[in-house]
Amino acid sequence: MTLFRPAATGYPRPMARAATYDRNDALDAAMRLFWTKGYHATSMKDLEQTLSMRPGSIYAAFHSKEQLFRETLDRYSARMEADLTRLVMQSPAPLKALQSHLLSLADLTPCDRPSTACMLVKSLLELPQDGELRDFITDHLDRVEALIAAALKRSAQLGELPDSCDPDRLARRIQTYIFGLKIQAQRQKDPQRMQELCGDLAEELGRIGGGAVARTA
């Protein structure tokens, strides 16, 4: 039972205080942090410092560290899928576009990314074999694989691949190439060796289609 109720007044109720942070900027900053340090190694103190937010504000905005992590994975994956769609789904020659992408992974020059390794793969490797968070990440990886498979099916329709080729099986191989090369770029210091490795895989893909693109110098 209510024992006290404030008297009604003619003054309007105070409005809820507007958020003092930019959600997109906060998600980008958190994504870079998780991408660099990993989920488990990232502490709430790290998030407070990186986002310039107090713990209560972080929980009010994102509910939990895991939910924030999930949103950054969504953000990363959406950008990856958009890049892949522009690269191969809109190309008049999807197979050659995939070959060119493999060759482009030889670039070891610094960039604005915190790591050359795929954030999804890095995150998957640190999680236990069972769990909803792991399933969440594998769902994202499955969507990337499905995009590659769709591009290869279109490639087959365009005559770039022989009828005997299984696009779904080849998509799994190409996804392994891409993620493996991104991890290799983290440890490889010799640009020539990285170019050779990317060139070998691009040529192998070309042979499946009956040809090969020229290697970069």
In short:
With 217 residues, the protein is mostly helical. It has helices at 23-37, 44-51, 55-62, 65-89, 94-104, 119-126, 132-157, 167-187, 191-208.
Features:
single chain, 217 residues, mainly alpha, 65% helix, 0% strand, disordered C terminus
Described by strand count, sense and barrel closure, the largest sheet is:
none
Backbone CA Rg: 23 Å
Shape: elongated
Mean pLDDT: 85
- Roughly what percent helix? 55-70%
| Structural classification | mainly alpha
DSSP strand tally? 0
Strand content: under 5%
Strand and helix order: HHHHHHHHH
Query: Which spans of ≥5 residues are poorly predicted at pLDDT below 50?
Result: 1-18, 212-217
Distance N to C terminus: 81 Å
Number of alpha- plus pi-helical segments: 9
